[in-house]
Design goal:
about 60 residues, mainly beta, 4-stranded antiparallel sheet, 1 helix, about 15% helix
């Protein structure tokens, strides 16, 4: 998988950035994020990985 964005931080940073508790391990849904943040309570870290997805659209004919 090709990634577009990776943001890693401590749980304290993620709590400050999002206002969410990050109190359980696993995927955490963050409003407005395209992917869940993967939280690891044991290690005190969380990481957001956004896939690099390209979509091809047909151009509309203008006349």
């Amino acid at each position: 998988m090709t990634v577009s964005v990776v943001i890693a931080g401590t749980l304290d940073e993620w709590r400050r950035w999002t206002g969410l508790p990050f109190d359980r391990s696993g995927p955490i849904e963050v409003p407005g994020a395209l992917s869940p943040v993967l939280c690891d309570v044991v290690h005190g870290t969380a990481v957001y990985v956004e896939a690099n997805v390209w979509v091809r659209h047909r151009a509309a004919s203008t006349g």
